[in-house]
Amino acid sequence: MSAAATATPTTSAARQRRMRAILPPTILAAIAVVAVVVPLWAGVPLTTFSVFNTFQNAATLGLVALAVGLTVMAGEFDLSTIAVFTLGGLLAVKFGEASPFLGVAVAVGAGMALGAVQGGIQAATGISSVPLTLGGYIVIAGLCHIVAGESILVYGDYDVGLWLDGTVAFVFSPRSLVVLAVFALVWVAMRHTAVGPMIRAVGADRRAARASGVPAGVVVSGVFILSGALCGLGGALFAYSTTAAKYDLGLDPFIFAVTAVLVGGIDVRGGRGSVIGILVGVLAMSLLDTIFIQLAMPTYMIDLARGGILLVVVLVEAPDLARRVAAWKNNRRSLARSHE
Fold first, then answer.
1. The CATH number of the domain covering residues in 9-332
2. Do 260 and 178 form a contact (C-beta atoms < 8 A)?
3. Domains of the chain, residue spans
4. What is the mean pLDDT of each run of 10 residues along the chain (340 residues)?
């Protein structure tokens, strides 16, 4: 029997860790090559404005993806993120007429409060976060309708939006730089403080984490609070950018965020992944959107491409995939020999 067929669980885990580290930048590099070659072949070459649009797309939903990724790393799943994002935009517009900073503060504060409620309930009861945050999504979506009054809220200070989306160094904007700065701050906290190891410990094995002295309930509550703050801030920045806030953004933004998280190498079982991986996943999906928009292709083509990439990621990261394939091949050889 081959070595692959008898691979130990340790070998399989090491392979998965390597693939999880290598796959996100590989996918981003592959999409970048496509972004250069295909538009050039189609007669619409990539420009600095295309790169600018990629970072703008990343700025729009990057913080939602970061929120989803952190909760998954903690062993949970926050389905309410897009509703908090939507509510954050509405509150920012409603309270930000006098001062945009006040609007952002209200949006972030509301997100933190909602995260504290959901995280506190989960930590206290141990209930699965999926039905809990699904209920949260439904309630918060209803709040969005109430706050908006079933209409689109318009933000009157157009100068704020123009400043947020102004060009900086050809490919950035103040909005995208703010989002990148938030990613950097979270990366520093995850990498150089006890926060990162505690979140991963809780996500990998909550019982073992408690036994080793990690306050699992506090960690889970803190992650949900941070998730709410990130979504509230992201929604406020997006509403100011578009000078309007809708009460229903649909599920496409959430699908984008989850896809980016999985492409970024976050393990859905919890305990594994990185902030850099999430950022790479966000940039990869944003660049993919830029390609299809530049080529004026229909929306469903973007969905097909996202789904195809996600399927590849799932297959490559499948547990014991190499061992199972090797065992299948060996079984086929054994059957072939038995019929000779």
1. 1.10.3470
2. no
3. 9-332
4. 48 67 88 88 86 96 97 95 98 95 98 97 93 96 95 95 96 98 97 95 94 94 97 98 95 93 90 93 94 86 89 76 68 69
